[in-house]
């Protein structure tokens, strides 16, 4: 039987030095029927644009490698949408320009989707790699196999795009990525996918997900705006599904982002709203007091001591909203 074509969309921006290792991981796939669409999101005058072209030129002998150049920097999700529009495959996979797939990633995901015709997408676990220290941590998403949408609402974060394989017709039906969002674009897409179709989870890590300081992870202003848009967008779902307490937890995270970006009084307002939604939880009270007394400086110091104490006691950082924003996977969609 003929293998279905997989279109791999790879947006790249100022990562030309890491791009070769990422593309090599595509060529090492045991699954053979794929096309690679590299979308260069660098401005044409940027040196990275020329370097990206040189990297891709090394693969010019492969007929299924395509380079598309944006006339200006438009953002990673706009670049993904460009790749989706050019894709010819039955399935679409995404690969960030500093991530690396395991050799059997596509083969296992295509196999599972072929076996489960009702599933619109598949995802896998990953290894989170700190690009500065080199430390590696296996991330098991552990999301619900029965009601993924509700589980995503509770957690407030999703699955990185490099872990996904999506049927093209399903991706087109939900409208692709919302490039107008300043952050949480991958989470937004996953919420819409979960509302639209069933899924398959492969509970083994099949990619190295690199976390670097040049991504959006420390842009707290963008994270605040993106998260607020989404919790407002899905507010009625939180109410109708009895998840008001989780909504309150996400308001607390908004407060975390606000205080870390220096928006002290905005943070205080978010913590007060969080308390109104879940008055029995102590953490927003403590954060509100810390914000009143010292703002960002005291919050950062208190957070460092809190996480140090948890490590000494053998605890782990929280896996959802209400934990420190950096303790939860939030994605790199804004890079």
Question: Which descriptors apply to this entry?
Answer:
12 helices, Spore Coat Polysaccharide Biosynthesis Protein SpsA, Chain A, alpha/beta, single chain, 2 domains, 335 residues
Question: What does this molecule look like?
Answer:
The chain is of the alpha/beta class and 335 residues long. The protein has 2 domains: 6-124 and 142-199, Spore Coat Polysaccharide Biosynthesis Protein SpsA, Chain A; 220-327, no CATH class. The protein contains 12 helices and 9 strands. The chain has helices at residues 16-27, 47-57, 76-86, 105-115, 148-155, 168-174, 185-196, 220-233, 235-240, 244-260, 264-277, 283-312; strands spanning 6-12, 34-40, 65-69, 91-94, 100-101, 119-130, 136-139, 164-167, 198-211. Strands 1, 2, 3, 4, 5, 6, 7, 8 and 9 form a 9-stranded mixed beta sheet that branches. Strand 6 (119-130) and strand 7 (136-139) form a beta hairpin. It is globular and about 60 Å long. The two termini are 39 Å apart. The model is unreliable at 308-313 and 315-330 (pLDDT under 50).
